[in-house]
Amino acid sequence: MQFGIFSVGDVTPDPTTGRTPTEAERIQAMLTIARKAEEVGLDVFATGEHHNPPFVPSSPTTMLGYLAARTDRLVLSTATTLITTNDPVKIAEDYAMLQHLSGGRADLVLGRGNTGPVYPWFGKDIRDGIDLAIENYHLLHRLWREDVVDWQGKHRTPLQAFTSTPRPLDGVPPFVWHGSIRSPEIAEQAAYYGDGFFANNIFWPKEHYQRLIGLYRRRYEHYGHGSADQAIVGLGGQAFMRKNSQDAIREFRPYFDNAPVYGHGPSLEDFMAETPLIVGSPQQVIDRTLRFREDFGDYQRQLFLMDHAGLPLKTVLEQLDLLGEEVVPVLRREFAIGRPAHVPDAPTHASLVEAARTQAVES
Amino acid sequence: MTARTLAVVSAGVGRPSSTRLLADRLGDAAARALRERGDEAEVVAVDLRDHARALADAVVTGFPGGALRSAVETVTGADGIVAVTPIYNGSYNGLFKMFFDVLDAGALEGRPVLLGATGGTARHSLALDFALRPLLAYLRASVVPTAVFAATADFGAADDPLGARAGRAGRELADLVAGRAPVVRPDPYDEPTPFAELLAGDPPGS
């Protein structure tokens, strides 16, 4: 099982000091956080893609390309890559290049963004959101698997005898996860292709995500990729911890109360009861995260949101120390107990190359 | 004999509340009329005041939490709905609007609804037709022709004209509810649109 972190890349004032970092500071902080993730033994760093203030990461493959050169084993991913408003040809090219630069350490989570105007900013119509996600990915899927593509669709210029370069590393495309907060169509899409499904698992109660993941697992089996419990599931989560749980709550409360997404709404206690947010001791984070398996079945990737709502870099790095030293080693051990042998790990470049080789031998 | 549920929603904030008084009269009238048509009728009261904070939270978070979630399920699962609000500044109050704002799109499509409102004087009565009716029309609910307004003075009027109006409105709601198939909403998580249809390019809702 893989563990890691994902960043939204928000530039948010620290509510305890009123200080807002500059974009330059926030970008450097994201890079520091990603390298720290590798240092403390995490497996994955994922960046968001946003095209509006107060977010900095508009160009994920530029950032991940830099990180590829500054890390050795970290898997570099996204949360999420906009499949709706990016040209699928450019996604095919950018992420294949990243795959080469990182030596196969790149994968991506596709999503539809968090703000309506991103559609018109890129010449699209939000009413086509699902249709764009379906059509664009269908083209992306072909561009990575067929050397020469003839294609015609509704949402971009037709292609005749087009070859996307570079071709994927070792002839194996980067692994794709499809992310969704509420759309059953996206769970269906992930199941159809046998791709991964990533449930953000942050904003809403678990019952909602259970239905979404349940749908994905059922349809994954329906489309013949394996049994439902072999489907590739990733989950988000968010945690804040201190040795003493009361200290964690006291320190995190002003960040929660003023957070851009849910601030000035429910109390921290209500939100912890209703959603997977965990604020407490490392042991509480461990216990709560282990419950994800009871809620969603054995899964493949757990990403935590740790650097948001104006938390200072120093605090985030302390959180990563706790996550890497006290939480994840226990989670690795505990999640391995009772995990059926036929439940796969998250696909990596090496495992995908091996699977392709086996398939070639068999056919 | 079919078992029917009527959800009786009040956005009144006083305790005791004249809005709740009117809502109960309308709910009772509709239940009585349903029983006369041979159905069983269970009346479930939903007081939005109990969910005031949860409604504000839901506006921010996008999901109804805790007890509000049960209230939403009660209303969206009911065979008929009585919805009553006090009139503030010429329209429904904020509590009433917030409740309908947190329902999923399509949750009340085709659902029989009886509207009521309260106010200090009868001068506010047209808010029912100029404010409440368009809101429920947007939600594609089936609103009965008679909507009932109760001014403060109506609660002490001779010959109880309010009772006669409530009776007529209740019969109209019962006529819509009786004879309908029980409410079953298709669940998109149980029955997803197959991928072949998604790929064929007719986006949902088009």
* Number of beta-strand segments of chain A: 13
What composes the largest sheet of chain B?
A: 7 strands, mixed
Largest interface: A-B, 35 and 22 residues
Pick out the low-confidence regions of chain A.
none
What value does the Rg of chain A take, in angstroms? 20 Å
CATH top-level class of chain A: Alpha Beta
Multimeric status of the protein: heterodimer
Largest sheet of chain A: 9 strands, parallel
SS summary, helix count of chain B:
7
Indicate the overall shape of chain B. globular
Task: Look at the helices and sheets of chain A and give the structural class.
Answer: alpha/beta
What is the number of helices of chain A? 12
Secondary structure: elements and pairs:
The complex is a heterodimer of chains A (363) and B (206).
Chain A lengths: L1 E6 L15 H17 L4 E4 L12 H11 L4 E4 L2 E2 L5 H14 L6 E4 L6 H4 L7 H17 L3 E3 L7 E4 L13 E5 L3 H10 L2 E4 L6 H17 L10 E3 L3 E3 L3 H13 L10 H7 L3 E3 L1 H15 L4 E4 L8 H24 L12 H14 L1
Parallel strand pairs in A: 1-2, 1-13, 2-3, 4-5, 5-8, 8-9, 9-10, 10-13, 11-12
Antiparallel strand pairs in A: 6-7
Chain B lengths: L2 E8 L7 H19 L3 E8 L4 H10 L4 H11 L3 E9 L2 E2 L1 H8 L10 E8 L7 H12 L3 E2 L4 E4 L9 H17 L17 H6 L6
Parallel strand pairs in B: 1-2, 1-3, 3-5, 5-6, 5-7
Antiparallel strand pairs in B: 3-4
Helix pairs in contact in B: 1-6, 2-4
Walk me through this protein's architecture.
- The complex is a heterodimer of chains A (363) and B (206).
- Chain A has 363 residues and is of the alpha/beta class.
- Chain A has one domain: Alpha-Beta Barrel (TIM Barrel).
- In chain A, helix 3 packs across helix 5 and helix 6 runs parallel beside helix 7.
- The longest helix of chain A has 24 residues.
- Chain A starts with a strand and ends with a helix.
- The relative contact order of chain A is 0.14.
- With 206 residues, chain B is of the alpha/beta class.
- Chain B has seven helices and seven strands.
- In chain B, strands 1, 2, 3, 4, 5, 6 and 7 form a seven-stranded mixed beta sheet that branches.
- The chains are: A alpha/beta (363), B alpha/beta (206).
